[in-house]
Amino acid sequence: MINFNKYYFVPLLLFFISCEDQFSSIKEIDLPPHEPVLAVVSHFESKPISLPINSYNHFAQKVFVSNSVGALEQEPSDYIKDATVELYHENNLISSLTNSNFEFNFSESFYFDSTITALDPGEYTLRVSAPGFTSIEVSQTLPNTPEIGEISFEKEKIPIGFESQLNDLLEIEIIDPVDEENYYSFDIYYEFYKLDSFYYDAEKDSVYFGEAYDTTYYEMRYFESNDPLFEFGDRFDMIIPDVGFNGDSYKVRLALSPLSETSGRKLSAIHIYTHNLSKDAYLFETSKERYFLAIGNPFAEPVIIHSNVENGLGTFSLGNTTYKKIEL
User: Fold this and answer.
1) Which residue, 246, 236, 234, 257, is CA-closest to 321?
2) DSSP E strands: which ranges in the chain?
3) In the chain, pLDDT over 70 holds for what percent of residues?
4) Contact at 8 Å (CB) between 314 and 41?
5) CA distances for 297 relative to 142, 290, 291, 292, 305, angstroms
C-alpha cells in the first residue's frame, strides 16, 4: 500500500506545479480620483504651560491646517496659508486666529492667537474654511479640572526594567470623579540652577557646592511607569484612562531620570502639570502612536488615525490642566 501511494504522489505533485498559474491572477483596480479636503490638528488647554520653555507650547493653543492627499500620490500635503480659522465658545466667536507666516518650515506654520491664555468651561467649536475646499467644523466640551491629592517625591529610588540606574520616584494621587470618562496625562519639569563652584569627591561619591548663579533653568523630564493602565501616545507620551479606578482615588508612580548633579546642577523644584484630556484627544494620540509602531511591521494590521472633523480630516481636542509645584 505504501508503494502504491508513492507512485501516485509524484504525478499529482507535477500536476499542481504545472497548474500554478491557473490558481493566481492579477487584477488591476482603477481607484477613483482623490478629492482633497481640509486637514487640521489642534489641541487647546485650559491653562497652557507658563514656564519659559518651548517643548509643550509648540503644539498648544495652535491650529495646523493642511490638505489631504491620495494614498498613491507622491506629493506631500501643503500648509494652507489663506485659511480662515475661527474659535467659538458656546456659539460666540472668541477669536479669529492669525497665520504665523513661517513659509519655509511646515512644523512652524500654524494659526494662533496669543491672547488665548485660558479657557472657560463649556463647548468650543473650531471652524476652518479655505478657497477650493469644503468648510469644516468640529466641537469639543472642555473636560473637568483634574483633582490632585497627595504628591511625594524621592530621588534615585526606583529601577525600571533591567536598568541598574535608580530613577527618581514621583507619586501623584488622582481623585477621580464618579461616572465620567477621564483620560489623564502628565508633563513634568525640573527646575534647577547651576553652581559657579563645585567639585566631585569620587571616593566619597559626594558633590560639594559653592555659590549659586542667579539664573534658573527648566528641563522637561520624560518618565516611565510599570503601571499596566498607562497607554502610549504621541505628544502626550503616556495616558492613563480611569477605566480601572473610576470614581476612586488612584496613585500613579512615575520613574523620572535623575538630574546629574555632578555637572554642577542643583535641583530646586518640580513643576507638575496634570492634564485631563477629552476622549478625542486620547483616541487621536493612541491611534497615532499605534500607526507609527505599525510602519515597517509585516505582522501589524493597518491603523487608521482617529479623526473627529466633519467634512475633513484631523482632530480638534481639549484638555483641562491642574498645576502643582513642589519646592525641594
Assistant:
1) 236
2) 38-45, 62-67, 84-89, 92-96, 98-99, 111-112, 123-129, 136-141, 147-158, 167-175, 183-195, 198-201, 206-209, 212-221, 223-224, 231-232, 238-241, 249-256, 265-277, 313-327
3) 79
4) yes
5) 37, 11, 10, 10, 17
- CB contact at 8 A, 65 and 130: yes
pLDDT at res. 118: 86
Mention the CATH class of domain 38-141.
mainly beta
pLDDT value at residue 56? 43
* Boundaries of every domain in the chain: 38-141, 147-306+318-327
Give the type of residue at 222. Y
The predicted structure's pLDDT at residue 203 = 63
* Nearest in space to 100 (alpha carbons), one of 119, 113, 87, 89: 113
- Asked whether 174 and 249 are in contact (CB, 8 A), the reply is yes
In the DSSP assignment, the letter for residue 61 is T
Per-residue pLDDT reduced to its tens digit, 64-95: 999 998 877 777 778 888 999 999 999 999 99
Name the percent of the chain in helix, strand, coil, to the closest 5. Answer: 15, 45, 45
